[in-house]
Design brief:
The chain is an alpha+beta fold. The protein has three domains: 261 residues, Beta-galactosidase, Chain A, domain 5; 295 residues, Aldolase class I (TIM Barrel); 185 residues, no CATH class. It has 16 helices and 48 strands. The strands form twelve sheets. The chain has a nine-stranded antiparallel β-sheet. Helix 11 links the parallel strand 30 and strand 31. Helix 2 packs parallel to helix 13 and helix 7 runs parallel beside helix 10. It is globular. Bound molecules: 2-acetamido-2-deoxy-beta-D-glucopyranose (11 copies). One 2-acetamido-2-deoxy-beta-D-glucopyranose binds next to strand 15.
Length: 763
């Protein structure tokens, strides 16, 4: 057989990733000459029948090559496999394109289902797919093949059903097509460093799935249109991407996400400007003290006024959860306006009494008896008791314009999984899911509203690529589960944060308590937060919202303020805290049992990068080398004692001990680059950072670090609130660990720390 071999040349990478395509339409992807993915069938289900290359009911008629150019992703070469589908006397030409990109390290697979609509009287199950292209065997190639995978699955950005394992035919890679998401494949021998493939849908995120089909001996990953979709329109194309990185799991996922964002022109503009992401806020959702619960003898209006006026914290917004609007059939929302028993004077009056503090408000699935269906176009599902705005009229704009008038700045769309899965129209109409979310997003754009996704499946996160106003998403289960049962972690968002962040969404940990015991809460007398500081630090380092939900008398002000500047601006690292590659690889190696929560993140100020290492719930000891967190060598210190610093380099790695960093404690270290002056004794110094905050070095606080030409003086410039006192810790080889209290100028809110071989001072 003649083999047509296409070599992918990756710019800036001398690694070798190839796709080989043969005359029969088979294709293999190799990494460094090792087979990683081998194709299985191409197939289409229509007229209640499968047409497949496996039994020649789908016949390959031509193989052609072409070149092209994409405005966002550059040039490509592609091979087109043309198939003939003969059904019911009509012949449909199906085109399967395999595209090799020249400047991004990816292959994309596009299936054009031809110029006839493909309909079904008897649909397949929603967990299956009704088109298959591409498909790959899930297999261990030979005895030396030690590869692992993990995948995002389930609600909260793929958090609740995430899993990992060995890449072999008996592994369950995808449990549910509807709930599944991107699959990350890596080399266990390299412990999750180096070679990584990310496999994900590349278009029509609400209408397509990755599924797993098991045959007697084989196990196959198949991509295509959700099985229950009743009709595929003429000339419909859907696509999937196989993205390669040589930079390990974390970086590989980030690179894949950057490519996805580039493909859809997504920018981080709205994320960076979202008030609810940048500033401290107050939350009342499931885990908050005032979730379906008010102060004794007060209604909700009085309770919220007390929260705003009595808790001495710089809240910039208040979130109102599902307790404030009208519900109908099946507890769906019937009318999204304030109930008189909750806010007797209405939201506009409440907003005014709250000195116009911005509001964030929750919404859920629409009930079958929603009042809005009288005026606007809704898809209805009497069986499930739900409804959905079709989005071809002014529904969303009217809703958001009205909400703007009572102070809404953030619309929280919750129950996304239920509205998608437990609702017939979104399962059978190929366009409806996308149309619903896009029309919501378009109205948000027109009314300058931001959107938070909650209970979102990976497909909703991917859909947000096309919805610039979705700025963040929940990446954890409800906080209440952790309050009721401490052994159920809820703060462990090191995996799900990777997906949200890659797509350009800030990960949101959810509400938190800053005090362990809060009598009178709605969660029972035994409810407890065993480690409040872990909650605050995770929320702060997530880069997403920080939203305490303490009872009025229970907020620990000092503890919460470790998140923020005096005025409530959150001091953040540059990227979310995520699980380090080694721990992800071990999660797969130990057949899906997580070995601990060992995370890292970083901040860069003028090309100088500072790292943070976090550990909790460790099940085994680890030795962390700088390269494992993408760091250079430097100086390391534990958050609770800046007086003791140590060298962190390849000969002085960090020991992370399971008995010390256990499920009821936290370990946290900061790593700073160590610099040297050009003085006779070569004085060394390092910026350890802001002692009183979780993010010791943040871009919000440090605007620049410069050295003079002679390398005898360094100037560190800070910004803050006028007259704010900021304790800055430095390491200095002559003066040892030194703290200077910097007072921010009353004029411009700035200050400079000046470091020389003999002294450190702030001006
Ligand atoms: C893919 O790999 C399999 C197993 O090595 C081989 O039999 C097949 O010919 C290869 N196909 C292509 C297109 O390279
Ligand atoms: C196939 O053709 C027959 C006869 O023309 C028609 O009755 C039937 O509805 C067609 N089936 C589909 C699925 O279009
Ligand atoms: C294959 O496609 C090419 C280009 O479209 C065309 O020239 C050629 O005739 C086709 N071959 C067959 C067997 O259809
Ligand atoms: C793309 O096609 C052009 C023309 O056929 C060829 O010169 C080039 O090498 C191809 N590029 C790749 C990456 O295969
Ligand atoms: C599908 O595409 C073909 C070729 O571009 C075109 O002739 C045809 O009208 C299209 N069909 C529909 C229903 O849009
Ligand atoms: C995994 O990495 C090891 C070490 O680099 C290498 O020898 C092996 O071939 C790789 N395996 C695969 C499947 O690429
Ligand atoms: C396949 O992987 C699973 C875990 O994903 C593991 O339990 C099983 O032992 C592996 N089987 C083989 C043959 O390696
Ligand atoms: C992205 O922007 C480019 C150039 O402005 C445009 O050509 C392209 O259609 C846009 N792509 C998407 C998916 O919006
Ligand atoms: C919106 O779609 C519905 C259902 O398809 C249709 O009945 C209605 O006329 C459409 N409205 C507008 C304004 O296009
Ligand atoms: C911590 O682990 C110990 C031992 O496995 C267990 O008994 C305890 O319940 C765990 N505590 C939490 C909060 O998970
Ligand atoms: C800095 O301020 C803190 C609290 O305001 C004080 O406890 C500490 O002694 C001061 N440190 C120095 C070096 O002035």
């Amino acid at each position: 057989m003649r083999l047509v071999v296409f070599l992918l040349v990756i710019v800036g990478c001398w690694c070798d990733v190839r796709i080989l395509i043969d005359e029969d339409g088979g294709y293999n992807i190799t990494v460094n000459n090792q087979l990683w993915l081998r194709s299985s069938r191409t197939a289409i289900y229509t007229d209640t029948q499968w047409y497949s290359t496996e039994d020649n009911s789908l016949i390959l008629t031509n193989v052609t090559v072409a070149e092209g150019d994409d405005p966002n992703l550059g040039s490509w070469n592609q091979t087109t496999l043309t198939y003939d589908l003969v059904s019911n006397q009509t012949s449909t030409s199906i085109s399967a394109h395999i595209r090799q990109w020249n400047i991004i390290s990816a292959f994309t697979f596009h299936l054009e289902t031809g110029d006839n609509a493909l309909t079904d009287r008897i649909a397949l199950d929603m967990e299956q797919v009704r088109t298959v292209f591409p498909s790959f065997y899930i297999e261990k190639i030979d005895m030396n093949d030690q590869r692992g995978f993990f995948t995002f699955e389930g609600l909260m950005s793929g958090e609740t059903g995430k899993h990992a394992g060995n890449w072999n035919a008996s592994s369950r890679v995808i449990n549910s097509g509807m709930q599944g998401g991107p699959v990350v494949l890596f080399n266990l021998t390299q412990r999750g460093e180096d070679d990584v493939l990310v496999l994900s849908p590349f278009s029509h995120f609400m209408a397509t799935s990755l599924t797993q089909r098991n045959k007697i001996l084989d196990s196959i990953l198949e991509y295509g249109i959700i099985g229950s979709m009743s009709s595929i329109p003429a000339n419909y194309t859907h696509s999937m991407i196989v993205f390669y990185s040589q930079n390990g799991i974390n970086e590989g996922i980030r690179e894949w996400g950057e490519t996805m964002q580039r493909a859809f022109n997504r920018t981080n503009e709205n994320r960076l400007n979202d008030l609810t992401i940048n500033y401290l806020g107050y939350y009342t959702d499931n885990g908050g003290y005032y979730y379906y619960h008010t102060e004794d003898g007060m209604n909700y209006e009085e309770t919220m006024l007390n929260v705003a006026h009595k808790i001495p914290l710089p809240f910039h917004y208040i979130q109102l959860d599902s307790w404030w609007y009208f519900k109908g059939i099946g507890n769906g929302v019937s009318q999204w306006t304030a109930r008189p028993d909750v806010f007797p004077d209405g939201l506009a009056v409440l907003h005014r009494r709250l000195e116009n503090i911005p509001l964030a408000a929750h919404n859920r699935y629409w009930s079958y008896d929603t009042v809005y269906k009288q005026k606007y176009a809704f898809a209805l599902d009497p069986g499930n008791g739900k409804a959905l705005p079709i989005g071809n009229d002014s529904f969303w704009i009217d809703l958001f314009v009205e909400a703007r008038n009572w102070g809404l700045v953030l619309y929280e769309q919750d129950w996304l999984n239920v509205q998608t899965i437990d609702f017939l129209p979104t399962r059978v109409d190929i366009n409806l899911g996308e149309q619903w979310l896009m029309s919501m997003g378009e109205a948000a754009k027109q009314t300058e509203m931001n959107i938070q996704y909650c209970m979102s499946l990976p497909r909703h996160i991917l859909q947000a690529l096309q919805i610039p106003r979705v700025t963040h998403a929940r990446v954890s289960d409800d906080y209440a589960v952790h309050l009721k049962d401490s052994t159920r972690s809820q703060w462990n968002i090191g995996i799900s944060s990777m997906l949200a962040d890659a797509i350009g969404l800030a990960p949101f940990k959810d509400v938190l308590w800053s005090t362990s015991l809060q009598p009178g809460s709605p969660y029972g007398t035994s409810s407890k937060e065993i480690l409040p500081e872990r909650e605050i630090l995770i929320a702060t380092l997530s880069t997403g919202p920080v939203g305490p939900g303490d009872g009025i008398d229970y907020a620990n002000i000092q503890s919460i303020m470790k998140c923020c500047r005096r005025d409530g601006l959150i001091l953040k690292p540059d990227r979310p805290l995520t699980t380090i590659n080694t721990l992800v690889a071990d999660w797969a190696f130990y057949n899906g049992v997580i070995q601990g929560e060992l995370y890292s993140t970083q901040t860069t100020i003028n090309d100088r990068t500072f790292h943070i290492i976090f550990a909790s719930a460790m099940k085994r000891d680890y030795t962390v080398y700088p390269s494992m967190i993408g760091s250079e060598s430097g100086i390391i210190w534990s958050y609770d004692n800046a007086q003791i610093t140590a060298i962190f380099d390849d000969t002085h790695p960090l020991d992370v001990l399971a008995n010390k960093c256990n499920n009821e404690t936290i370990c946290l270290w900061y790593v700073s680059p160590l610099w040297q002056f050009n003085d006779p004794i070569r004085t060394k110094y390092a910026l350890l950072g802001e002692w009183s905050k979780w993010t010791a070095v943040s871009q919000q606080r440090f605007t620049s670090i410069t050295t003079n030409k002679e390398k005898t003086q360094a100037i560190i410039t800070l910004q803050g609130v006028a007259s704010e006192i900021v304790p800055i810790v430095l390491f200095h080889s002559t003066l040892h660990t030194i703290t200077v209290n910097c007072s921010m100028s009353t004029e411009d809110g700035q200050a400079n720390v000046i470091v020389t071989p003999t002294h450190v001072m702030c001006s």
